[in-house]
C-alpha cells in the first residue's frame, strides 16, 4: 500500500480535476462509468505487471486483444448459445499465447522483447489474413453484457475488475509473488537459491495472456466488433505499469500501484478529452511518461547498491 | 521515494501543460470566427475548404445523372466527354491496378467488387493488382513496376494526393491512366472517377441534423482524423451548414475511428451536458458505438448520421432511430474497369466522372438493409448481381 501511495495521490488529483470540469463525475453513475471504461486497461496492466516485475516485457497483449475480439465475433456469429463456450475458448487461447511467449523466452533464450514483438506481428498478420481487414460475424447479447450490462447499478466489468485485482494482489502476497519478485531482482541469485526461474516467468506470461483475454471480453462487450480494438494497448499497459512506479527491468514495484497507474492513465485521457485536447497527444503523453519513468529510475541507480529495507521483497 | 516524486512531477507538469495548451481551433471553445453567423463552436474553417468545389458539389446533388438508372456505377453527373481514340487497341487486355490499401472494411468491400467486375469481362485476360499497404513510397514503386509489366491501362487509387502526383504524371506518358476514389493534382489521367464528394456527404448529414434538432440544441461532431482531404471536406461543409443554423456545436472531437474511444467520448459529453441533441459524424464506422453510449447512459438516442454500413442500418431499424446515412458508395470500384475497357475500345469517357452519391433515409432504409450480410458490409456496393455474391463479400445465402 505504501508503495502505491504516490501514484494514488496523483490519481486523486486527476480525479479532482475531472470533477471540477464535470461535476457529474462525482455521482455514482458517472464514477462507475469511469471505472467501467478503465477496467480493461487496469486488468491488462495487472497482467503486464507480472511480466515486467520478473524482468520481461509483453508487447503482444494489444494484438492478442484484437485477435480475441475478432475470433469471438466470427465464432459466436450472433448466436447466444455459443457465448460461454467461446468465452472459455478465448481464455484458453490467451493462456496458450502466454505459454508460447514464456516458453520461447525462457527455454529458447530469445529476449522477451523480440518474442512478444514477433507474437504481435504474427497475431495482427493472422487477424488481417483471416478477416481481410473487415471482421465478420457478430457478438451475442450475452457476450456483450460483460462490457455493457451490470448487476443493478454496478457494471459487470467493475465486478470482474475487483475479482481480478484481488486475485492479483493475493498472488503477489503468496509465495509465487516473492518468487517472481526475486527472479526480477536478480535472476541468477534467485536460481541459485532454488527458485524455478523459468517456471515463474512462464506463469507470468500466462497471467498476462489471461489478462488480455479478459480485457478482450470486456472491450468487445463495451464497444463491439472492431479490427482496431487492441491497437496500442500494449503501450498503454506498459505506460500504466511504469506510471505506477514499477521498474522496467524488474524486481520492484507493487501490483496495486500498477493498477493505480492504469486508472491514472485513464483519468488523464478523460481529462485531456474533457478539455478538448486532440487524441494524438495521448501517445505523446505515454511516450513522455515511459521515458521519464525510466530516467527517474536510472538517476537513482547508484543507490541500488545500498541495501534498503524491504526493497526487493515488498510485494504491495 | 524520489522515483515516485519525479514521476508525479512530470505528470503534474503534463497536466498543467494540458490545461494551458492552446486548444485546437476545432474544439469546444465558442470563439466564433468572423465568417460564421449564429452557429458557434465549429472553430475556424479548414484550409482544405474551396468555395467553388463546395458550391459545385452541393449543386450536383440535385442534378439528374446520365446513364442507366439501375447501374449507378455507369452513370455520370454533368459529364464533359473526352476522346480516347488514340488509346484504341485490340484485345485481349492486360489491366493493372495500383491500390492504396485494403486496410478498412470500405476498401475491402470495394476491392472485392472490383475483382468481380474484372471477372465479368472475357476480354480482360490478365488483371494485375499491387497493394501499397497504405504507404506512399510503396505505391510510387508499385506504379513504376506496373509500367514495366506491359499493362494496357493503369488504374490508380492514390494513397495521398500530393505525393502520388509525380508518379501518376510519369505513368500518363506511357499508358492510359484512370484515377479513382482520391484525386491527384494533375489532369493527365484520362478520367478521374469519384462520387460527388466530401462536401456533399458532410452537408447531407448536417442539413438533416439542422432540420431535426430543435433551435439551440447541442450537436456533437465526431471526426476520424484531421488533415485528410476527403474527411476535411466533409467537416468543412458541415461547418458551413451549422454556422448558418440555430444549433449549437457542443464539441468537435477526433475518434481515430476507434469504437471504444468513440463510446467514451460520447459518454463524456452526455455526462458533461446532460443532454446531447444530435450527433454528426464524418464517417459512419463507429456510429453504432456512439448510439450505444446513449443507450448505456439510459437516455434517448438523438438524431444521428452514419454511413451505409450494415450494423448501423440494422441498429437504425431495430431502435427506430431518427437517422440519415450519406454514402461514399463502394460501387465506384466497378467504374474504373468499365472506364478502362471503354478507353481501350476508343469510346468517349467523362473527363471528370462524377458518380451519383445516394443517401439512405428512413424511407429507403429497408432496400439497403441486408440481414445476411456481415455487420461491416457497405450496402451500396452495387455487387448484388455480381458472381460470387454474397459469399465473397462475407454474406450468407438466404
Structural summary, described in words:
The complex is a heterodimer of chains A (316) and B (398). Chain A is mainly α and 316 residues long. Chain A is built from 13 helices and 2 strands. Chain A has helices at residues 5-21, 28-53, 61-76, 83-107, 112-131, 141-148, 156-173, 175-185, 187-192, 197-223, 233-243, 255-274, 280-299; strands at 150-151, 154-155. In chain A, helix 3 packs across helix 10 (197-223) and helix 11 packs parallel to helix 13. By secondary structure, chain B is an alpha/beta fold. The longest helix of chain B is centred in the first third of the chain and has 19 residues, at 2-20. Helices cover 37% and strands 16% of the residues of chain B. Chain B is globular and about 65 Å long. In chain B, the strands form 4 sheets. In chain B, strands 3-2-4-5-6-13 form a 6-stranded parallel beta sheet, with helices on both faces. A 3-stranded parallel beta sheet of chain B has the order 8-7-9, sandwiched between helices. In chain B, strands 10-11-14 form a 3-stranded mixed beta sheet, covered by helices on one side. Chain B contains 12 helices and 14 strands. Chain B has helices spanning 2-20, 51-60, 105-120, 136-147, 161-172, 198-212, 229-243, 259-273, 287-296, 310-319, 335-344, 365-368, and strands at residues 81-82, 93-99, 124-131, 153-157, 177-180, 191-195, 218-223, 248-254, 278-281, 304-305, 323-326, 349-350, 352-355, 359-360. Mean pLDDT of chain B is 86; it is low at 1-39. Chains A and B meet through helix 1, helix 2, helix 10, helix 12 and helix 13 of A and helix 1, helix 3, strand 8, helix 8 and helix 9 of B. Chain A: It is found in: Cell membrane. Chain A: InterPro entries: ABC_transp_permease. Chain A: Keywords: Cell inner membrane, Cell membrane, Membrane, Transmembrane, Transmembrane helix, Transport. Chain A: The chain crosses the membrane at residues 31-52, 82-101, 113-133, 153-172, 202-223, 229-248, 255-277, 283-301. Chain A: It is a multi-pass membrane protein. Chain B: Residues 23-42 are annotated as: Disordered.
Amino acid at each position: 500500500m505504501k508503495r502505491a501511495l504516490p501514484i494514488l495521490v496523483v490519481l486523486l488529483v486527476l480525479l479532482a480535476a475531472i470533477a471540477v470540469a464535470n461535476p457529474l463525475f462525482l455521482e455514482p453513475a458517472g464514477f462507475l462509468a469511469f471505472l467501467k471504461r478503465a477496467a480493461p486497461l487496469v486488468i491488462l496492466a495487472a497482467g503486464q505487471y507480472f511480466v515486467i516485475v520478473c524482468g520481461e516485457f509483453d508487447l503482444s497483449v494489444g494484438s492478442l486483444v484484437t485477435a480475441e475480439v475478432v475470433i469471438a465475433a466470427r465464432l459466436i456469429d450472433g448466436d447466444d448459445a455459443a457465448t460461454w463456450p467461446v468465452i472459455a475458448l478465448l481464455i484458453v487461447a490467451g493462456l496458450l499465447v502466454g505459454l508460447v511467449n514464456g516458453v520461447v523466452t525462457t527455454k529458447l533464450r530469445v529476449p522477451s522483447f523480440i518474442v512478444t514483438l514477433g507474437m504481435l506481428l504474427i497475431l495482427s498478420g493472422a487477424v488481417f489474413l483471416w478477416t481481410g481487414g473487415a471482421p465478420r460475424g457478430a457478438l451475442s447479447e450475452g457476450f456483450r453484457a460483460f462490457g455493457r450490462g451490470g448487476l443493478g447499478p454496478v457494471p459487470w466489468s467493475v465486478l470482474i475488475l475487483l475479482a481480478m485485482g484481488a486475485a492479483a494482489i493475493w498472488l503477489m502476497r503468496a509465495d509465487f509473488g516473492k518468487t517472481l519478485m526475486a527472479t526480477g531482482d536478480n535472476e541468477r541469485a534467485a536460481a541459485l537459491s532454488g527458485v524455478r526461474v523459468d517456471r515463474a516467468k512462464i506463469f507470468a506470461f500466462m497471467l498476462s495472456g489471461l489478462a488480455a483475454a479478459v480485457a478482450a471480453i470486456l472491450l468487445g462487450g463495451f464497444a463491439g466488433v472492431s479490427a482496431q480494438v487492441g491497437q496500442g494497448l500494449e503501450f498503454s499497459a506498459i505506460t500504466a505499469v511504469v506510471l505506477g512506479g514499477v521498474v522496467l527491468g524488474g524486481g520492484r514495484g507493487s501490483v496495486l500501484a500498477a493498477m493505480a497507474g492504469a486508472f491514472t492513465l485513464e483519468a488523464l485521457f478523460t481529462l485531456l478529452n474533457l478539455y478538448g485536447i486532440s487524441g494524438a497527444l495521448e501517445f505523446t503523453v505515454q511516450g513522455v511518461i515511459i521515458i521519464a519513468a525510466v530516467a527517474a529510475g536510472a538517476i537513482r541507480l547508484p543507490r541500488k547498491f545500498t541495501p534498503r529495507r524491504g526493497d526487493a521483497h515488498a510485494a504491495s | 521515494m524520489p522515483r515516485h516524486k519525479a514521476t508525479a512531477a512530470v505528470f503534474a507538469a503534463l497536466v498543467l501543460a494540458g490545461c494551458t495548451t492552446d486548444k485546437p481551433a476545432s474544439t469546444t471553445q465558442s470563439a466564433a470566427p468572423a465568417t460564421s453567423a449564429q452557429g458557434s463552436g465549429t472553430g475556424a474553417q479548414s484550409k482544405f475548404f474551396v468555395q467553388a468545389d463546395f458550391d459545385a458539389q452541393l449543386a450536383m446533388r440535385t442534378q439528374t445523372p446520365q446513364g442507366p438508372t439501375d447501374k449507378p456505377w455507369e452513370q455520370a453527373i454533368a459529364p464533359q466527354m473526352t476522346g480516347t481514340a488514340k488509346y484504341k487497341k485490340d484485345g485481349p487486355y492486360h489491366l493493372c491496378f495500383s491500390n492504396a490499401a485494403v486496410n478498412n472494411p470500405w476498401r475491402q468491400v470495394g476491392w472485392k467488387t472490383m475483382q468481380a467486375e474484372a471477372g465479368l469481362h472475357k476480354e480482360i485476360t490478365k488483371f494485375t493488382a499491387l497493394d501499397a499497404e497504405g504507404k506512399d513510397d510503396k505505391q510510387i514503386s508499385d506504379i513504376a513496376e506496373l509500367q514495366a509489366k506491359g499493362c494496357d491501362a493503369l488504374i490508380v487509387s492514390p494513397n495521398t494526393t500530393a505525393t502520388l502526383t509525380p508518379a501518376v504524371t510519369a505513368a500518363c506518358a506511357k499508358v492510359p491512366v484512370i484515377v479513382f476514389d482520391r484525386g491527384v493534382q494533375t489532369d493527365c489521367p484520362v478520367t478521374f472517377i469519384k462520387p460527388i464528394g466530401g462536401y456533399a456527404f458532410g452537408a447531407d448529414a448536417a442539413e438533416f441534423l439542422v432540420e431535426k434538432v430543435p433551435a439551440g440544441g447541442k450537436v456533437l461532431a465526431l471526426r476520424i482524423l484531421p488533415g485528410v482531404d476527403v474527411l476535411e471536406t466533409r467537416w468543412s461543409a458541415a461547418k458551413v451548414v451549422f454556422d448558418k443554423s440555430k444549433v449549437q456545436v457542443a464539441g468537435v472531437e477526433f475518434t481515430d475511428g476507434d469504437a471504444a474511444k468513440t463510446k467514451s467520448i460520447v459518454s463524456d459529453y452526455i455526462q458533461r451536458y446532460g443532454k446531447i441533441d444530435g450527433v454528426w459524424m464524418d464517417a459512419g464506422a463507429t456510429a453504432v458505438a456512439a448510439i450505444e453510449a446513449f443507450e448505456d447512459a439510459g437516455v434517448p438516442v438523438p438524431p444521428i448520421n452514419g454511413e451505409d454500413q450494415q450494423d448501423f442500418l440494422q441498429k437504425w431499424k431495430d431502435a427506430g432511430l431518427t437517422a440519415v446515412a450519406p454514402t461514399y458508395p463502394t460501387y465506384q470500384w466497378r467504374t474504373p474497369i468499365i472506364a478502362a475497357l471503354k478507353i481501350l475500345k476508343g469510346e468517349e469517357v467523362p473527363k471528370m466522372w462524377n458518380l451519383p452519391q445516394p443517401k439512405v433515409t428512413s424511407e429507403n432504409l429497408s432496400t439497403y438493409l441486408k440481414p445476411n450480410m456481415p455487420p461491416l458490409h457497405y450496402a451500396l456496393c452495387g455487387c448484388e448481381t455480381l458472381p460470387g455474391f454474397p459469399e465473397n463479400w462475407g454474406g450468407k445465402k438466404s
